[in-house]
Amino acid sequence: MTALLPLAAAALALERSGQALALLAGSWSAGAARWRPEPGRWSALEVVNHLADEEKHDFRLRFCLLIDSPLSAWPRTDPQGWVTQRGYNGRDLLTSIERFGSERATSLSQLREMPEPDWSTRRGSLSALDLMASWQAHDLLHLRQLSELRYLWLESQDMNIEYAGEWPGLVRPSEHGTGHEQGQHKEQQLATHPAAGALEPS
């Protein structure tokens, strides 16, 4: 449990993973960032906007509520629906990266102004430590996703990248059976989390 403590260490980890996400997303051209491996999977541009909205409406807000007001209801989120409802793929790439960076900077500022929290504070079965770990893990999941997208995009450009080596376990479009987005896992788990009934108002 001590790996994430103190809060300053957790904030530093989020700062560094946020920088990595912005740099990786910035490697795309504006047009290529809208590319999807197949219908039902996200583009890099959609991933960036998902990260920005999750930062503002999910992780930062819910972590602060859990620490400051653990009995307060958590506002509803709709990460899957927002992709189309908010037109992520029609947005400007650089503006989207800057929006994520701004939201992450706000999060870091708030975390660094907080007193050291009680990491055992819980909402159902979810502790403050669990939520902070999930925040960091969410960055890592989408770093992987952006990397996979870039790899698949390079393959799609009729370039032979075998010299780089094979990506173990990479799901290519022809092998992707469900058509579901790779970024769903966190939201799916939240919906079925033992604490979910207590997280959001009915």
Number of helices in the DSSP assignment: 7
**Number of discrete domains:** 1
The ordered H/E elements are HHHHEEHHH
The N- and C-terminal alpha carbons lie at a distance of 33 Å
Helix content: 55-70%
Shape: elongated
CATH homologous superfamily annotation:
dinb family like domain
The order of strands across the largest sheet is 1-2
The CATH class name reads: Mainly Alpha
**CATH level-3 fold name:** Four Helix Bundle (Hemerythrin (Met), subunit A)
Radius of gyration: 18 Å
The name of the CATH architecture is Up-down Bundle
Summary?
This protein is mainly alpha-helical.
Describe the structure.
The protein is built from seven helices and two strands; from the N terminus they run H-H-H-H-E-E-H-H-H. It has 202 residues and is mainly α. The chain has one domain (2-199): dinb family like domain (Four Helix Bundle (Hemerythrin (Met), subunit A)). The chain is elongated.
